[in-house]
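Please, structure for the following, as tokens.
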Amino acid sequence: MLSNVAVGAARPCRLLEHQDSDRQDIVSVNTLFTLELVHTLLPQLLANSAHDRRCALVLVSSLSAAMPAPFVSVYAATKAFLCSLAESIRAENAHVPK
């Protein structure tokens, strides 16, 4: 499964200049949508892996997740969430036979 979904603000701006709806859209699309997609598809990916079928979960992030990202802080925070989510899922399922 490859998740490369993302949305950012219409224009770079300081956090306090973001409209409520822009912040909510960025967080909803970049984190909640991906979280629900992973939650729905992960059982099948794990089942395929257990039956020697090659499968992978790929969550596309951004360099902004790993460094200060002025004027795109909400977007950067959602990308950091994806990195943490992917690493946590990997750790939780490290015992699953490959």
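The chain has a mean pLDDT of 90. The CA atoms of residues 35 and 91 lie 16 Å apart.
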